[in-house]
Amino acid sequence: MKQSSFLLPTLRDVPADADIASHQLMLRAGMIKQLAAGVYSYLPLAKRVIHKVENIVHEEMSKAGSQQLTMPTLHPAELWQETGRWDKMGGELMRLKDRHNRSFALGPTHEEVITSIIRDFIQSYKQLPLNVYQIQTKFRDERRPRFGLLRGREFIMKDAYSFHSNEESLHEAYEKMYEAYSKTFTRVGLTFRPVIADSGAMGGKDTHEFMALAEVGEDTIAYSDSSDYAANIEMAAVQVKAPNDLPTHREELNKVETKDVKTIEDVSELLNVPASSIIKSLLTNVDGDWVLVLIRGDHELNEIKLKHQLNAKEIRLATNEEVLEVVKTPVGSIGPIGTSLKVVADHAIQYIVNGVCGANEEHKHYTGVHAERDIDVENYGDIRFIKEGEPSPDGKGKIRFAQGIEVGQVFKLGTFYSENMGATVLDENGKSKPIMMGCYGIGVSRTVAAIIEQHHDEKGITWPYEVAPFHIHLLALNMKNQEQADLGEHLYSLLSEKGYEVLFDDRKERAGVKFNDADLVGIPIRIAIGKKASEGIVELKIRHSGESVEVSVSDLVDYLAAKVQELKSE
């Protein structure tokens, strides 16, 4: 492709509304153009990268036994109402009505649609297992679109779905897709970790997220410094272990004045006790019922864990007004002693001795609290966030934190969709049973942004070879010089014939402009034709390393072949 006729509108300045590297560089490198908040056009350079990523996905999905199809983007509301997700998805679901006032949604995912197809065509266990996928534009009405392609309202996603007659078959497909994802993200050049995750609105239980490590990641990964253990911080388990330094002396329960105390820090300072000895009481609405949830003062409630612990559909913390109405005392003074509410506590609470908690009277707290003696706890569980430096849940090493960008996720959905939508098969005994399902998604456009987050420097993008928009950026530094122009045309034809994808900068621009654009766009290999064109010598530079060498045109093809093998093996 000749750059003089290629739509590549590079920018010198960083756009003011772009906060992260991938967003800035995709705008500056002429890859994307914003149409509305969270909605972008993919310009030719971006499309070439997207096609490279999609081709890798196609190859790995085919190896995993998945078949490609395409489903509608426009979904009738009735399908989503069958599973209850029409209401559960809330404002993130892009909704619209047709001229007949019929409700539709623009699909953010396709569980309902694919289940409706399978229930109409699959009747026997003999037709299973089955695995299908598509790559398609999805829609999500983000409240606050940001970070370019990382959190948009319109995005490209690969979604796959598997169908099974038993748990063993589902597990086998899950493992195959897990392996396919690992290969996919390795091939596109990402440093990533598969982490234990929560399935959220997708339903199901077992799930892993594939997280590309990046400082701008919106998710926190908890990982072991001595093993392969990694989990989304919402799902990282906490080891339950009694402290070695429990006091042997048990104080008497005593009610004390705590006027003008509002926070854990205030209580700690006033009563001269560590936050770890304070019991924090949180009034929580669990599927419409009020529950008092207890965690240590130095810990933070993990609502995802609490939801799983109580097998709840919805939980939320009470407002200040609701606390006054239910407990008859302000937030800072509520406590578990003598309450008529159901009490649920984190495991750490049972080891509190000589602690402090609210007394359910304004400006009053109890001291000398011994949890197992003074509090009627109905249910203990792991309901807090793990902290950095704590033991890893697998018993190997300590927990460390890192930020990550979710680029893919695999789910064991079980029978949630098939039961709600009547997708059944006859088993070996002729008995009707719901089909077991798996779901597997890759954010294609997010993956492109994540690649840039990991592969850039102060000058621009540094593409991995396999996903680069072109393999070689060929620069004729002075197109007015006939020898440079002729050699440029010759090498453009020669390298293209050898199978390389070449972007030939044949523009009548200054050399400095061409070098700056080449660094910004980040094609792996740059070949510059300059003053030594008459001698048959060009300069070859590797973008990510900065390695530069002069090469004779007669040796160029062989030298390139060796360099390309090095780049592919990195």
Automatic annotation (TrEMBL):
<dbReference type="InterPro" id="IPR004154">
    <property type="entry name" value="Anticodon-bd"/>
</dbReference>
<dbReference type="GO" id="GO:0002161">
    <property type="term" value="F:aminoacyl-tRNA deacylase activity"/>
</dbReference>
<keyword id="KW-0648">Protein biosynthesis</keyword>
<comment type="subunit">
    <text>Homodimer.</text>
</comment>
<dbReference type="Pfam" id="PF04073">
    <property type="entry name" value="tRNA_edit"/>
</dbReference>
<dbReference type="Pfam" id="PF00587">
    <property type="entry name" value="tRNA-synt_2b"/>
</dbReference>
<keyword id="KW-0436">Ligase</keyword>
<dbReference type="InterPro" id="IPR002314">
    <property type="entry name" value="aa-tRNA-synt_IIb"/>
</dbReference>
<dbReference type="InterPro" id="IPR044140">
    <property type="entry name" value="ProRS_anticodon_short"/>
</dbReference>
<protein>
    <recommendedName>
        <fullName>Proline--tRNA ligase</fullName>
        <ecNumber>6.1.1.15</ecNumber>
    </recommendedName>
</protein>
<dbReference type="InterPro" id="IPR004500">
    <property type="entry name" value="Pro-tRNA-synth_IIa_bac-type"/>
</dbReference>
<keyword id="KW-0067">ATP-binding</keyword>
<dbReference type="InterPro" id="IPR033730">
    <property type="entry name" value="ProRS_core_prok"/>
</dbReference>
<keyword id="KW-0963">Cytoplasm</keyword>
<dbReference type="GO" id="GO:0140096">
    <property type="term" value="F:catalytic activity, acting on a protein"/>
</dbReference>
<dbReference type="InterPro" id="IPR023717">
    <property type="entry name" value="Pro-tRNA-Synthase_IIa_type1"/>
</dbReference>
<keyword id="KW-0547">Nucleotide-binding</keyword>
<dbReference type="InterPro" id="IPR045864">
    <property type="entry name" value="aa-tRNA-synth_II/BPL/LPL"/>
</dbReference>
<comment type="function">
    <text>Catalyzes the attachment of proline to tRNA(Pro) in a two-step reaction: proline is first activated by ATP to form Pro-AMP and then transferred to the acceptor end of tRNA(Pro). As ProRS can inadvertently accommodate and process non-cognate amino acids such as alanine and cysteine, to avoid such errors it has two additional distinct editing activities against alanine. One activity is designated as 'pretransfer' editing and involves the tRNA(Pro)-independent hydrolysis of activated Ala-AMP.</text>
</comment>
<feature type="domain" description="Aminoacyl-transfer RNA synthetases class-II family profile">
    <location>
        <begin position="38"/>
        <end position="464"/>
    </location>
</feature>
<dbReference type="Pfam" id="PF03129">
    <property type="entry name" value="HGTP_anticodon"/>
</dbReference>
<dbReference type="InterPro" id="IPR036754">
    <property type="entry name" value="YbaK/aa-tRNA-synt-asso_dom_sf"/>
</dbReference>
<dbReference type="GO" id="GO:0005524">
    <property type="term" value="F:ATP binding"/>
</dbReference>
<dbReference type="InterPro" id="IPR036621">
    <property type="entry name" value="Anticodon-bd_dom_sf"/>
</dbReference>
<dbReference type="GO" id="GO:0005829">
    <property type="term" value="C:cytosol"/>
</dbReference>
<dbReference type="InterPro" id="IPR007214">
    <property type="entry name" value="YbaK/aa-tRNA-synth-assoc-dom"/>
</dbReference>
<dbReference type="InterPro" id="IPR002316">
    <property type="entry name" value="Pro-tRNA-ligase_IIa"/>
</dbReference>
<dbReference type="GO" id="GO:0006433">
    <property type="term" value="P:prolyl-tRNA aminoacylation"/>
</dbReference>
<dbReference type="InterPro" id="IPR050062">
    <property type="entry name" value="Pro-tRNA_synthetase"/>
</dbReference>
<keyword id="KW-0030">Aminoacyl-tRNA synthetase</keyword>
<dbReference type="GO" id="GO:0004827">
    <property type="term" value="F:proline-tRNA ligase activity"/>
</dbReference>
<dbReference type="InterPro" id="IPR006195">
    <property type="entry name" value="aa-tRNA-synth_II"/>
</dbReference>
<comment type="similarity">
    <text>Belongs to the class-II aminoacyl-tRNA synthetase family. ProS type 1 subfamily.</text>
</comment>
<dbReference type="GO" id="GO:0016740">
    <property type="term" value="F:transferase activity"/>
</dbReference>
